[in-house]
Design brief:
The structure is a single chain. The protein is built from 14 helices and 15 strands. It has 421 residues and is α/β, with parallel strands linked by helices. The chain has two domains: 128 residues, Aspartate Aminotransferase, domain 1; 261 residues, 3-Layer(aba) Sandwich (Aspartate Aminotransferase, domain 2). Strand 3, helix 5 and strand 4 form a beta-alpha-beta unit. The chain starts with 17 loop residues before the first helix and ends in a 5-residue tail after the last helix. The relative contact order is 0.17. The N terminus is likely disordered.
Amino acid sequence: MSDVTPPHPLVDVRADFPGVAGRGDRVYLDSAATAQRPEAVIAAEAGFTRSDYAAVHRGSSMATGEATFAFETAREKVAAFVGAGEREIVWAENATDALNLVAGGLSDASRGLGGERLAIGEGDEILVTEAEHHANLIPWQRLARRTGATLRWVPVDDRGLWTVDDLRARLSPRTALVAFSHVSNVTGLIAPVADIAAAARDVGALTVLDACQSAPHLPLDLGALGVDFAAFSAHKMLGPTGIGVLYGRAELLDELPPARTGGSAITTVTMEDAEFLPSPHRFEAGTQPVTQAVGFGAAVDYLTRLDMRDVRAHGAELAGRLVDAVSAVPGVRLVGPRPGEDRAALASFVVDGVHAHDVGQFLDDRGITVRTGHHCAQPLHRRLGTAATTRASAYVYTAPDDVDALGSALGEVRAFFGADR
């Protein structure tokens, strides 16, 4: 690791984040779990709550109109941020909810409630990877059981990695759906999304992308990538909790049955049946997360001002520094891409002789916040031969000094627990 690294321009934004600037010497390296919020997002939520708070899409009052305008403007902002049309952005509770909306809709379509091209049944295959977050695995397990389809997966190697060639080898004319993560929340692997989407199209399969770890860090154009559905969450990209996004190609969303039903999503209801609105409103039954949507819109405004190309460059710089810091410590095993290989701005590792939870507590006592556990990826950790890893993750407000502090503290862990004897 070099002794001196010129600070990236994004380090200057730290003052915008009270959870970082206001915490003294505390080092926050858990952004892959939840990112800190800038004052601009906090102010947008508070301002809407104070001045414009009202129900949306209900009634004809001025208050409802103003709230609806703010709500739909936020949708426009998020759509533009990820290269989507406004009708292709559905508000969900979070990314997990969004993925379940797809799985539940496909299950109903398989019962004849939606478009035939969305139906999945016996003889079909659903393909995932062994590295998936549980949110992008369990819904497909359930869908396979409900429809009689077979769940298959792309195995990972000893470092937790898989390749597009590994995936292509498991595609067949029976593959109906391919679900995978753009960026692994454990290894930091960045998948070649466009190549995978094209390969899936060649066999007539739908694609579902978990973009939770890519939307905050990479310039994203979902339309150009060619995926059919995608999911991501606001709280990982400087926004509030309680809101996420389901992206889907408009023509597919109009054919996908809504997995949740109720008011605000319909055109006509009789005692025997109901007809649903076009996307996105067919999926947004009930009272909406209006304040959260406004905050999400402010978050993508903030990221847009930073320029996602600079966000990506900053992340790449910190990714290299994280890898160097972890790899330099004897008795610490890095998971995922090797030093010098491309990865997102996170690093998971195993400390020989010390449980990940103890590592996390040691670092926390020294003012460094990281994540420990299986990171909702138990099959991946089982393949790696460990119950848990420690993960450090960076974002726009992370400085090189933060990573250096991690490396310094990590060098003391094994001696503290007597594991270096």
